[in-house]
Structures are given as C-alpha cells and as structure tokens.
Amino acid sequence: MKKDGFFNKLYNSIVKIENYPEMAAQGLGKAISYLAKIIVILSIILCLGMIYQIHQLVEEGISYMKYEFPEFSYNDGTLNIESQDVIRISEDDSIAGKTIIDTKIEDEQEINKYINEIEESGDGLIVLKDRIILKNNAVSGTINYNYKEVLTKLGIMQFEKQDVINYASSTQIISMYVSLFLTLFIYSFIMYFLTTLSNVILLSIFGYLTTWIAKIKMHYVAVFNMSIYSLTLSILLNTLYVAINTFIDYNMEYFQVMYIGVAAIYLVAAIFILKTDFIKKQAELIKIQEAEEIVKRQLEEKEKNEKEQKEPESNKKEERQNEDKEENKNKDIGKEDNKEKEDKKSKKDNNSGEEPQGYNA
C-alpha cells in the first residue's frame, strides 16, 4: 500500500473522497497522527492571530493606561485596580470587543452575568482579580487565563501601573510575546484536539449507523478513521474563519452546524462510494463466474463431440479388425482343406501304385 504524506492526505481528504477507505486502512495511529498535525496548523494560526490582537491591544492600552486608566498593582496572583466602580469599555473602543474590568467581584453568579453580557455582543474580555476571561467568535465557549499560572512562567511576581507602561514600551515585550505564544499554543492544541476528537466520535457513530442503513459491513475503527479525514475541510474552514476574525470582526451564524454538516456529507459520500464500488466488484465477480460457466460448458460440449467422433472410428476399426480376423480364419481353414486334399491325393496315389500279389504270380 502506498504511504501518502501529510499534504497528499490533506488533498485527498478534500478532493478524492474515494480514497477514504484506502487511507482508513492505514490504521488508527496514522489517522490520529494526521489529526494532530492538522490541529497543530490550526493552533499556530489561532495563536498568531491572538498574539497580533494582543499586540494591537497593548499599543492601544498603553495610551489608554497613561491618561485614563486608574492606578493598579499585581502581587502573587492577585490584581487590584483602584476603582470602586466597574470599568466598561465598549466593543467600538476595544480591539478585544466589549471589555468589563472588575477586580472586586467574587460572586460567581455576577461573573456569569458578565460572561452572558459579553456573549451577547460577540467578542469580549472580562478582567477579574485572579484571571482573564476571553470570548472569541471563532471559539465555542470562553477561555480562562489565570494570572498566577501565566505570569509565574514568565517570572513575573509583582508589578504596578508604571512598570507595565515601561515594559510595554521596551523591546523586552518580545520575549513576553514568545512565551505567551508557546503557552497559548499548548493550551489551544489541547483544547482543539479534544474538541475535534469529540466531534470525530459523534461523527463516527453517525457514520456507523449509516453503514447499517446502506447495508455494508464495516469495522467501527475504519469508520472512525474515515470520520477524521472527513473533518479536514471543516477544520480548514475553521482555520480560515479564525484568520479572518483576526483582522475583521466577522460573525457567521450557525458556523458550528456547517462545521459538522460538511464533515457528515463527506463521510456519507465516502460510505456510499464504497458501497457502489463493492456492488461493481460483485457484478464483475458474477460476470467472471458466468463466463467461467460458459467456458466450462463449451469445453464439456467439445469433449462430448470429440468423444462421439472417436466412437464411430473405433467401431469401424473394430469391424476392420474383426473382418481381418475372419479373413485370416478363412484363409487358415482353406489351407487346412487344401492340406487334407493333398494328403488324400497322396494316399490315393500310393494305393494305385501297389499291385496285388496274386496278379503278379
């Protein structure tokens, strides 16, 4: 079996649905490896887009922080902003979307109200005393970033407003972007891989039911592998959607429905193509069997005709042999008759040559 590379599989998964059974036959390990690679691509694009957005946010934030934002400080995982009121920034004034800043709130019900508020507006950001909650249209649900987990990895234990302004204005922020990219990449990869894997499981169950309806016997693992390849176009469309949202605030309603729908169409098409090929092979097998039967009958008829032709010849041969035997027998009888006649004649001649004794006297 030919082992396709990643990009060949990527192309075949979108364009050549008829190759799904062959790719699925390469095994579960190959399919999972393919899924991991395509999720890596998606995660890299997502992280680059988020780093770009963060950079734009930092640029705008420096200006806003200098002149409008109240004093704040961070120490050992806790952010404190010197403001008694909740700070709200509209989506028109923030690249991150609607932003809510409240480091005094601890009630989870109130936090859930904030989450619902930004979900209604699409993209959004909630800044709390111990974490940031990010909502992006390209990702289902919200993403939580804990200050202590992220900043401890960067070696940051405490800072104040002026420290942030000085740091954001220096070249040292590049190292922060790199570290942040790696952190986001690991998190995004795990999140997308598990989410996609759950979609694969649901899709494979649907595909397995389809094989029952189509009356074609397939192992579940084969359907599972085909489900992975059928998600290729959906994942690439999601990647494109993420890239577009990096530069343009674009929200596509029912994108998740389309995401699963496209994959389901690919999987069902692959199953029915497989069934069609199976039926064609069966028809070809039947034709071959019929041709073999015809050839067999022709051979039998030929042998029968040859046998019938040989029988008269063998009969004639026997008759000739019998005639020859009869002729030879007659010849032998004739020879015996002639011999008897000669014997009789010789006896007669002998008898006539002898004279009676009285006559001589």
How is the main sheet built?
5 strands, mixed
- The number of strands is 8
Strand content: 5-15%
Average pLDDT, rounded to a whole number, is: 80
Number of helices: 11
Task: Please state the CA-atom Rg, rounded to the nearest Å.
Answer: 50 Å
List the secondary-structure elements in sequence, H or E: HHHEEEEHEEEHEHHHHHH
Structure classification = alpha+beta
Rounded to the nearest angstrom, the distance between the terminal CA atoms is 129 Å
What does this structure look like?
It is a single chain. The protein is α+β, with helices and mostly antiparallel strands and 361 residues long. It has a domain of 80 residues. It is 71% helix and 9% strand. The chain contains eleven helices and eight strands. The strands form two sheets. A five-stranded mixed β-sheet has the order 3-4-5-6-7. A three-stranded antiparallel β-sheet has the order 2-1-8. Helix 3 packs parallel to helix 8. The termini are far apart. The C terminus is likely disordered.
Describe the structure concisely.
The chain has 361 residues and is α+β, with helices and mostly antiparallel strands. It is 71% helix and 9% strand.
